Amino acid sequence: MKPELHIDTYSLQKAAHAYRAINNKLKQKILHLIHQNKEIKATDIHKHLKIDQPVASMHLAILRKAKKVQTKKEGRFVYYSINYDRIHHIHKQSEKLLKDKVAKQKA
Which residues, 6+ apart, have CB-to-CB distance to 47 below 8 Å? Predict the structure, then answer.
């Protein structure tokens, strides 16, 4: 008798969302800009990268939802900073996944 196949679609969707959130050149540019400045206003992001404000807002919302960035509101301004713990976590998970794949290929 074959073992039952179990696919946890909820976990897979969450993982895919986490990777999709940073697997985009513009989002990576945004993350680098935030990192360089430690903390930056949303307005400065779209001006510095020369992108439309709605485009910047959409990408920042995705990064925020995936918890890759943190926000702090001061008056009418929203400041963004990197959530280094989340970025580090996804890199560790990726390394583990790739090591497991290489180990299986060698076996």
Answer: none
